[in-house]
Amino acid sequence: MEQAVIAALLLVGLIIGVGVGASYARAKRGWTDYQTIRTSVPGARRNAWLAIRGVVVKLAVIALLLVGAAAYAASGGGEERAGPTPSATPTPTHRPGR
After folding, report:
1. Cα three-residue angle 52-55-56, rounded to 5 degrees
2. Range 69-95 average pLDDT
3. pLDDT tens, 46-67?
4. Pair 78, 72: CB distance under 8 Å
5. For residues 36 and 27, what is the distance between their CA atoms, to the nearest angstrom?
6. Main-chain phi, psi angles of 76, to 5 degrees
7. What are phi and psi for residue 90, nearest 5 degrees?
8. How far is 62 from 31, CA to CA, in rounded Å?
9. Gap between the Cα atoms of 21 and 87, Å rounded
10. Which of 14, 23, 65, 96 has a CA that sits 20 to 30 A from residue 32's CA?
11. DSSP string spanning 2-71?
């Protein structure tokens, strides 16, 4: 009878130990992942801001080009200015006999 009690206690201890060990391993992995990500966040944040800055600069250049093109078109910059056109010269008609 003592062996059955010891076997039951060992089985309960084994189940509790497996549960506690798995929880400890999960917590250890989580802590390691947290430390890794914590050290990489400043670099990732810097890279994100650099990417955003690049996009903003490109958009600003495009906007300036569009505003410049609109101003150029509004001022009629591409068209040649037409001066006064020469009037048609009358052709003399020759009447025979005079």
Report:
1. 85
2. 74
3. 999 999 999 999 999 999 999 9
4. yes
5. 14
6. 70, 35
7. -70, 135
8. 46
9. 104
10. 14
11. HHHHHHHHHHHHHHHHHHHHHHHHHHHHHHHHHHHHHHHHHHHHHHHHHHHHHHHHHHHHHHHHHHHHHH
